[in-house]
Amino acid sequence: MAEYYLSTIWRIKAPRQEVWDVLYHPDGWPDWWKNVLQVAELVKGDELGIGALHRYTWKGALPYRITFDIHIVNIIPLQLLEGHASGEVEGRGQWLLVDDGTYTLARYIWHVRTNTLWMNWLAPLAAPLFRWNHRRVMYEGAKGLAHKLGTSVEIG
Hints:
By secondary structure, the chain is α+β, with helices and mostly antiparallel strands. The protein has a single domain (3-155), classed as START domain (Alpha-D-Glucose-1,6-Bisphosphate, Chain A, domain 4). The protein contains three helices and eight strands, in the order βααββββββαβ.
């Protein structure tokens, strides 16, 4: 298995509540994030959303799709969304939100291993391309979120 630790920071000129309201509802992501082809709720979580299970299908800049499930394991409203991935990738994803004056910093940490034979086979040569693809997907997500919120975003 190839392993990836990826981190992205979006600096969004919007209140944290507005950013949270969008990120907290993944079923709406395909409406604003062009790389998210589909999100299906498989299991409903508790009243906060912990225990929920969603299946995501993504398409990046490279010519492949990837599908995986995210099981929500931790939520701290307005601060943290954490899930465990399984399927074509497995590992952990976290959204961390903090205020920075008139901006919200949304940091996404994606620590996963690939489970598909072709990705593992190509990883020694293609790992830089896979990382680049992830950065492109995150760039498009930032642009889409900024458009949805009617504001600007900086990506780090």
